[in-house]
Design goal:
heterodimer, A: 75 residues, alpha+beta, SH3 type barrels, 6-stranded antiparallel beta sheet, 41% strand, B: 665 residues, alpha/beta, Rossmann fold, Helix Hairpins, 7-stranded mixed beta sheet, two-stranded antiparallel ribbon, 31 helices, elongated
């Protein structure tokens, strides 16, 4: 099933399909290792609900939901 | 030849954030460091020297970066340094325990044709994750030396120095190994590369393969670099024709990394639960996360401002004693010594203690890995008012002292986010304003004194939020949204005492340099205005004349010339306002001053005066640091201007509404 990273629940895993969004955000997300084929897991949301913590390529990354919405994944 | 004694080998350190780059830099250079700024920007530049086997090395610490694109300032500095300055050796520090993403930068450096030595750091943590590296294989596949290190225990430093020396001697222009892309893409690269090679200027200025790749990635800053080439149209024609972009290259690089690690690293398996994960279950817990955050912030605040206070008092006394050495200030020269130099330095230098204590605390929070988590916890709230999660700690520390708080904004990556945080920071009511509130509220508000004082803190916060929102909307250069929150949460680690102290000291030196120059100069100007023409009462000194001149301007707020002078001297340090009232009213002792204030002010003007003291200007030392940290007189001037106007407007509103209410009653 196709989703964006911001729709995923903590504990859910997926594989990245594509990254959209404005150039800077797209590039910075890509530089952190989120490219097509990357496996990514939602770890938790921050106490106030945003940002969200993810796990990929053996490390932990946080994105605001706004940025996470730029990443579409296959769950 | 690099082997001769006069030759200095130029080494650049580069790496992702949180890889232990600073620790390696400290290990290599020891105390032989110099901290400054990169030209034209406020990004910190650290250089150091070390001698190894009688050969001198100059080491430059490039900003921590994930990539080498040109649109982020840190990355542009790193990339331009490597392209334009062509260091003899680039040491790429790679976190062995987080190698997959770290190697991405390594591949970019190799593409750039840099003479790379890889320091494979944090080998101890990698070992605890059961990673088993085949170092030889990894070195073979990357085509560069790979040196395993543990920066925190100094392990591998000798080998690293040796590897730097031999790399500098070897200094190959063209490496034999290239990290290959798929055949299809390689064919495109070749096509563009051949076009580039026909333009001798381009071919000699940039690594041709790198340039070809960047053009195929459609990197705009690189497109600009070829704009004057006669081959430009032909090159652009090819890059337009093919359907590859930066995504394609990034994917292929990660695929290459996968291949490399497959052959050189065993033990990479599914993620096992680490101590760090367990700690985060508490520190970032839905309900516990915020109380834990508040406790840590409270402890940091107490450590920085309560623990440092006795030291401040002591230093002030030392300067008081030094000032008294020449006897009573009966001549201009003795007064220059006692009131100007010792008095001025006394009020300025004392800041060294909150700076030292705050940066010890912040270094511990940073090195332990909690600081990015604090930003993670607070980002939602800060984002609402147009700021970044990283802005919270500097704002909170402003309640202690605005000066180190403004220095602490360095941890905010985005320039706009940082500028706004600096500009609104003085609205956080610092500890030095409290004595003024206590005096005036105590004199005029009786049992409501506490509420009057509290209202000042609330007023400051409300104004800070309003200003942040206004700046985001209307000020060119600050407009737009906060920077995206794309941030690594590194594993927790035990902070090393040495690196904590070195960090604290580097911040202290920045301040001491300012204190000895611009701040002392400012204090002497204030002294001159208070003391000359010599032998007159303060009322007819230059400061007094200024106070009288300003009186008509301040009269609508109900402030007399004495209030004007008090505010003028409050610019040196806010707590001087209290003393100045004592001198002007010709009374000594707290009770007498309180009585005199009650006789000179109504509750309405008193409240307006408190608000004015909060807003009108940060103290001299803080303003000096604003100049240093923004690197701009324009923004410093903007701060002065907006705060003076805001202070006048807010005090005016208080007087107007106050008089209306009291009139009705």
């Amino acid at each position: 099933m196709k989703k964006t990273l911001s729709d995923m629940q903590p504990g859910e895993k997926g594989t990245v399909l594509s990254v959209s969004g404005d150039n800077t955000v797209q590039r910075r997300i890509r530089d952190m290792g989120i490219v097509r084929g990357t496996e990514i897991e939602v770890v938790r949301r921050a106490p106030f609900g945003d940002p969200v913590e993810f796990r990929l390529k053996g490390y932990n990354l946080s994105l605001r939901r706004e940025e996470a919405a730029c990443v579409s994944v296959e769950v | 030849m690099a082997g001769e004694k006069e030759t200095v080998i130029r080494v650049a350190l580069i790496g992702n954030p949180n890889v232990g780059k600073t620790a390696i830099f400290n290990n290599l250079t020891g105390s032989r460091q110099h901290v400054g700024n990169w030209p034209g920007v406020t990004v910190e530049k650290k250089t150091g020297r070390c001698t190894h086997r009688e050969i001198e090395m100059e080491i430059v610490d490039l900003p921590g970066t994930y990539s080498l694109e040109a649109d982020a300032i840190d990355e542009r500095i790193a990339r331009d340094y490597i392209i334009d300055e062509k260091p003899d050796v680039v040491v790429d520090i790679v976190d062995a325990s987080n190698i997959e993403r770290n190697l991405y930068l390594t591949l970019l450096l190799l593409e750039l044709g840099a003479n790379v030595v890889v320091a494979l750091n944090k080998m101890d943590i990698a070992a605890s994750k059961n990673y088993e590296f085949d170092i030889e294989e990894l070195s073979l596949l990357l085509g560069v030396p790979v040196i395993p290190t543990v920066a925190t225990t100094q392990s591998g430093m000798g080998e690293l120095r040796d590897a730097i020396l031999s790399a500098a001697v070897r200094r190959e222009k063209h490496r034999k190994v290239t990290i290959g892309y798929s055949d299809d893409i390689e064919a495109r690269i070749k096509e563009v590369e051949e076009l580039i090679l026909t333009d001798t200027y381009l071919a000699n200025t940039y690594p041709p393969r790198w340039l070809a790749i960047k053009l195929l990635e459609k990197d705009e800053s690189v497109m600009d670099r070829i704009s004057s080439s006669p081959k430009r149209d032909q090159i652009l024609e090819v890059t337009r024709r093919v359907e590859v972009n930066a995504d394609t290259f990034a994917e292929e690089r990660y695929r290459a990394i996968d291949r490399i690690l497959h052959a050189s690293l065993a033990g990479r398996r599914d993620h096992a639960l680490t101590t760090s994960d367990l700690l985060d279950r508490v520190f970032l817990h839905k309900r516990l996360g915020i109380p834990v955050f508040l406790i840590l912030m409270w402890a940091t605040f107490q450590f920085a401002f309560t623990v440092s206070e006795p030291f401040m008092v002591m230093l002030e006394r030392v300067f008081g004693w030094l000032g008294g050495l020449l006897g009573d200030p009966t001549t201009p020269l003795i007064s220059l010594w006692a009131d100007g130099i010792c008095g001025g330095l006394g009020f300025v230098l004392v800041f060294i203690f909150p700076i030292m204590f705050l940066f010890i605390a912040l270094a511990i929070l940073e090195d332990s890995g909690y600081l990015p988590r604090a930003a993670f916890v607070m980002d939602r709230l800060m984002y609402r008012i147009g700021l970044h999660g990283r802005s919270f700690i500097p704002m909170l520390m402003g309640f202690g002292c605005n000066l180190p708080a403004i220095m602490a904004t360095r941890s905010i990556g985005d320039e706009k986010d940082r500028l706004i945080t600096i500009l609104i920071n003085p609205l956080m009511s610092c500890g030095a304003r409290l004595p003024v509130y206590v005096l005036i509220a105590g004199a005029l508000f009786g049992t409501y004194a506490g509420s009057a004082i509290f209202s000042m803190y609330v007023l400051g916060i409300v104004l800070a939020i309003l200003m942040a929102l206004l700046f985001r909307r209307f000020i060119p250069g600050l407009r737009g949204k906060p920077a995206p929150f794309i941030m690594e949460l590194p594993p927790y680690a035990r902070p090393a005492i040495k690196s904590v102290l070195l960090y604290m000291w580097s911040r202290a030196v920045v301040f001491l340099k300012k204190a000895g120059t611009i701040l002392l100069g400012g204090a002497l100007v204030l002294w001159f205005m208070a003391s000359f023409p010599w032998g007159r009462e303060i009322e007819s000194s230059y400061a007094g004349i200024l106070g009288h001149t300003l009186e008509p301007l301040l009269a609508p707020l109900g402030f007399d010339w004495m209030a004007a002078i008090a505010l003028f001297f409050g610019f040196l340090a806010k707590e001087i306002v209290v003393e100045t009232f004592g001198i002007l009213y010709g009374v000594g002792g707290e009770d007498a001053i309180t009585g005199a204030v009650a006789a000179h002010m109504t509750p309405v003007t008193g409240l307006a005066f408190m608000a004015f003291t909060l807003i009108y200007l940060p103290c001299l030392a803080t303003l000096g640091m604003v100049k240093a940290e923004t690197g701009s007189w324009k923004w410093t001037g903007f701060m002065v201007l907006y705060q003076l106007v805001l202070a006048y407007v807010v005090a005016g509103i208080i007087v107007l509404t106050g008089n209306l209410i009291t009139g009705v009653l």
